[in-house]
Each structure stands twice: as structure tokens, then as C-alpha cells.
Amino acid sequence: GAGVSQSPRYKVAKRGQDVALRCDPISGHVSLFWYQQALGQGPEFLTYFQNEAQLDKSGLPSDRFFAERPEGSVSTLKIQRTQQEDSAVYLCASSLITGSPLHFGDGTRLSIL
Amino acid sequence: AQSVTQPDIHITVSEGASLELRCNYSYGATPYLFWYVQSPGQGLQLLLKYFSGDTLVQGIKGFEAEFKRSQSSFNLRKPSVHWSDAAEYFCAVAYNQGGKLIFGQGTELSVKP
After folding, report:
1. Hey, are the CB atoms on B44 and A91 less than 8 Å from each other?
2. Set of chain A residues whose Cβ sits within 8 Å of the Cβ of B96
3. Cβ-based contacts of A99 with chain B (< 8 Å)
4. CA A25, B51, B73, B15 torsion-angle sign
5. Which residue on chain B is closest to A99 by alpha carbon?
6. How many CA atoms lie within 13 A of A57 on its CB side?
7. For the segment B11-41, what is each residue's pLDDT rounded down to a tens digit?
8. What would the pLDDT profile of A48-89 be if each residue is shown by its tens digit?
9. Rounded Cα–Cα distance for residues B27 and B9 (Å)
10. Nearest to A48 among B36, B44, B100 (CB)
């Protein structure tokens, strides 16, 4: 596709369930970022990949959050034992090379009941 | 800690009027500076960026921003606002050209006829 694709667009889960959010970056893009955007707030950094290597995961809020990019393209953000405070929009962004402009997906809106 | 402040949570301007959105950052060195726009349910779109050189940068959609080191500011301006400019605007900084972005809280822009 032409842009960064995220799926699902909307996800509703019960507290305690595990969820997986997918990001398809633009083909050939090396860098991939995940951000969390709470309602009424700016996005907050979660983690960063360069190809398949996770170079920075300092923003992951707890060990319930896990991200992977095994083949250096598609990435999955997994949240285990979801809590209500995990409700947010999760944004994925990719760039061709380090330092080139970021392209953001439309995000996945996660609601935890 | 590095931070970005957008003092105005919500601004309303009349169509055709000029616009200035404020952004202040806290960082020890000259950061890389960005402005993004987000329409409801959409990802973020890059309006403009400053890395070095001329402190007045031009962006897309008729926007410009000026970096003022003495004031630690990077305010966004547009001489004549269009109704389609109504959206959320985020200022962001990065430590380096490919680094993670630190976003401000955002300014919601409403445009009245």
C-alpha cells in the first residue's frame, strides 16, 4: 500500500485479555516507531525498531507490553492482561532511513472495558 | 527532562484571519523541531521541520514556523486560515535527526466562518 497500515482500526477488549496490534509499514522502510496517544494528549514514545532490531524500548510502560518485528517489516505490539489505563490510540510510524520524515498510520483505537 | 509545552489547548480563529500557535521546548542543546497536524481519526501529518540553518522554515499548506533560540520557541504561523485547517496541531522535538519524538499536548484549532 501507499501508506502505513494499522489493524484493527478499533479494538474493544475486556480487562485482563491480551491484545495484538499490527503495523504494516511502507515497503522498504527501515525505521519503525510505536507511540501511545491517550485521549486529549500528545503521542508518547513506546519503542523503536531499525529493521528487526529493537533499539529502544524505554517507553514501554510495563512488562505487559511487548513489541516485535521479526523480519524487519511488519510489527506487532502485544499487550498482555490489559488494564483500563491501556485505553488509547496506538500509532505506528515508519521512515525510509534514519533521519528521513516519519509517516504515521491512522492508529488503532483500543478500548478496555 | 526534555519537554515540549504548547500553552494553548484550544484556539478559535475566524476564516481568513492570521494564526500563531505557540510552542516552547526544554532541551540542553538545539533540538530537531517539528510541527504535525492531526485530523480526527487520522494519523499525524508533518507540516514542517527545523534541523539547522535558516530559522524561518516553510512547510506545506501555507504554514511557516520560526525557531528562536533565545526564547526556546518554535511557533507555527499562517497568514490566512482556511476552514480546512481545523484540526489538532502538535509540536515535537527530537534529540537527533532520526530519534524518537517528544510531543507537546497539542492545540486544537477551530475555524469559524
Report:
1. yes
2. 99
3. 96-98
4. negative
5. B98
6. 12
7. 999 999 999 999 999 876 778 999 999 998 8
8. 999 999 999 999 999 999 999 999 999 999 999 999 999 999
9. 22
10. B100
